[in-house]
Design the sequence.
C-alpha cells in the first residue's frame, strides 16, 4: 500500500468518527434543549401560580376592613392590605419592619414571642387610641418559623357598647333603688303606726303613690326611649303651626307654672309653619317647658323663634349648616338656676341629672328623649346657660316650604 492510499483510508475513518460524534452530540443537544424548554415552562407555570396566589391574597385581604400584615421571621412586612396602611398612616409597606410601621412595641413583642413558641399572649393592644384584638398565625416550613400573619380587629366600639350597657344597668338600678327604698320605708312606717291618725296615714299613702308614679314614669320613659332609639316610632310629618303647638303644651303646663309663680310667654309668630310630627315635637316642648318650670324658682319662661345656627358640637355627622337653612330655630328660655358649664355637654345623656341632691325628681331621660326626637326630624338640640342665670334650650325643626 502506498502512502496516498493509507492517508485516504485514515481520512475516511476520521470522517466517519467525526460524523458519528456529531450525530451523537446533536442528539444530546436536542434532548438538552427539550429539558431546558420543559424547565422554562415549569418555571413559568410556577410563576403564574405564584402571581395568581398573590392576586387572590390581595383580593381577599382588600375585602377585609381589618388590617392584615404578613411578616417574615425578622418581623419585616412582606405584604399588608389597605386597612393596614391606613392604620399605620401610610407607613406600612413590604420591606418595612412591623415596629417602624405600626409603632407598637406591644404588637411587635406579641409577634416575636408567638414565633418563639409562646402561646399564652396578651391579645388586646392599643394603637392610635383605639383598641384592637390581635389574631395571629405563625407560618412554618419543615419545623422552622418563617413568619406570621396578623389580623387586627378594632374592638373599640364593642368596648364602648359594653361600658354603655354596664352604665345603663347601673343607672337603672340606681333610679329604681331610690323610690323602692322610699316605698319600703313608708310601708314599714304605716305597718308600725296602726294607731296613727287617718290624715297621717293618708299622707303616707300619698307619698307611696308619688313614688309609684315615679317608677311608672321611669318604666314608660325607658320604653319610649328604646322605641325611638331603635327607629320603631315612625315620625308622621304634618304641616303644623308652631305657635299653636307651643300654645297647646303651655295650656297643659299652666297650672303647674302658676303654682310655682311662673309666667309662660309664647312669642312665636303665628304664621310660622313647620313640617313635623306634632305629637313628638309637642313632647319635646313639653319636656323642655317642664324642666324650665322645675328649675325656675320664680320668674318667667319664654318660647320664641330666633336666627341662630347649631354649634358644631351639637351637629350630627353629615349634617352641615347649609342643610339647616330649611330649618327654623326655636328657643325655650327660663330665668332659673341655670346649668354649670361642665354639665352642659352631658345633660342630653340618658339618666344624667345635674341636681340629684336638689330633689327635683325626674328620671334624667327627658332630654335624651327630646334629642332623639329632634334628630329623627333631622334637627339639632343644644343648651346655653350660666349657672344662676337661667338656661336657654334651642332646637331646630324643618320649616314648611311656602
Ligand atoms: P330630668 O327628668 O331629671 O329633668 P332631663 O333629661 O330632662 O331629666 O334633664 C337632665 C338634667 O338637666 C336635669 O336633671 C337638670 O339637672 C338639667 N336641666 C334640664 N333642664 C334644665 C333647666 N331648664 N335648668 C336647669 N337645669 C336643667
Sequence:
Amino acid at each position: 500500500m502506498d502512502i496516498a492510499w493509507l492517508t485516504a483510508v485514515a481520512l475516511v475513518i476520521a470522517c466517519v468518527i467525526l460524523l458519528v460524534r456529531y450525530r451523537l452530540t446533536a442528539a444530546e443537544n436536542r434532548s438538552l434543549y427539550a429539558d431546558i424548554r420543559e424547565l422554562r415552562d415549569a418555571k413559568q407555570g410556577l410563576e403564574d401560580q405564584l402571581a395568581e396566589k398573590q392576586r387572590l391574597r390581595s383580593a381577599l385581604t382588600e375585602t377585609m376592613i381589618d388590617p392584615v400584615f404578613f411578616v417574615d421571621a425578622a418581623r419585616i412586612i412582606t405584604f399588608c392590605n389597605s386597612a393596614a396602611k391606613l392604620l399605620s398612616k401610610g407607613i406600612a409597606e413590604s420591606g418595612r419592619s412591623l415596629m417602624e410601621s405600626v409603632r407598637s412595641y406591644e404588637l411587635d413583642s406579641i409577634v416575636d414571642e408567638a414565633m418563639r413558641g409562646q402561646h399564652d399572649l396578651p391579645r388586646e393592644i392599643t394603637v392610635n387610641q383605639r383598641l384592637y384584638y390581635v389574631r395571629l398565625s405563625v407560618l412554618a416550613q419543615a419545623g422552622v418559623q418563617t413568619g406570621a400573619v396578623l389580623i387586627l380587629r378594632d374592638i373599640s366600639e364593642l368596648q364602648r357598647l359594653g361600658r354603655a350597657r354596664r352604665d345603663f344597668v347601673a343607672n337603672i338600678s340606681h333610679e329604681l333603688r331610690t323610690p323602692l327604698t322610699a316605698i319600703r320605708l313608708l310601708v314599714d312606717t304605716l305597718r308600725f303606726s296602726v294607731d296613727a291618725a287617718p290624715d297621717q296615714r293618708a299622707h303616707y299613702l300619698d307619698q307611696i303613690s308619688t313614688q309609684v308614679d315615679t317608677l311608672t314614669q321611669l318604666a314608660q320613659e325607658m320604653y319610649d326611649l328604646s322605641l325611638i332609639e331603635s327607629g320603631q316610632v315612625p315620625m308622621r310629618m304634618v304641616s303644623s303651626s308652631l305657635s299653636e303647638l307651643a300654645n297647646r303644651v303651655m295650656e297643659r303646663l299652666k297650672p303647674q307654672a302658676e303654682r310655682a309663680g311662673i309666667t309662660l310667654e309664647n312669642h312665636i309668630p303665628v304664621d310660622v309653619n313647620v313640617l313635623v310630627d306634632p305629637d313628638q315635637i309637642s313632647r319635646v316642648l313639653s319636656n323642655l317647658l317642664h324642666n324650665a318650670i322645675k328649675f325656675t324658682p320664680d320668674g318667667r319662661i319664654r318660647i320664641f323663634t330666633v336666627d341662630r345656627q347649631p354649634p358644631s358640637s351639637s351637629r350630627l355627622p353629615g349634617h352641615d349648616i347649609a342643610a339647616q337653612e330649611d330649618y327654623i330655630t326655636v328657643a325655650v328660655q327660663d330665668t332659673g338656676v341655670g346649668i354649670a358649664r361642665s354639665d352642659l355637654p352631658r345633660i342630653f345623656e340618658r339618666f344624667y341629672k345635674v341636681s340629684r341632691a336638689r330633689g327635683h325628681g325626674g328620671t334624667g331621660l327627658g332630654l335624651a328623649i327630646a334629642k332623639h326626637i329632634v334628630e329623627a326630624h333631622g334637627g339639632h338640640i343644644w343648651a346655653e346657660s350660666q349657672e344662676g342665670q337661667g338656661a336657654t334650650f334651642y332646637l331646630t325643626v324643618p320649616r314648611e316650604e311656602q
User: Anything to note?
Assistant: Residues 41 and 343 are 74 Å apart (CA to CA). The first strand starts at residue 68 and ends at 72. Residues 237-402 form a domain with the Heat Shock Protein 90 fold (CATH 3.30.565.10).
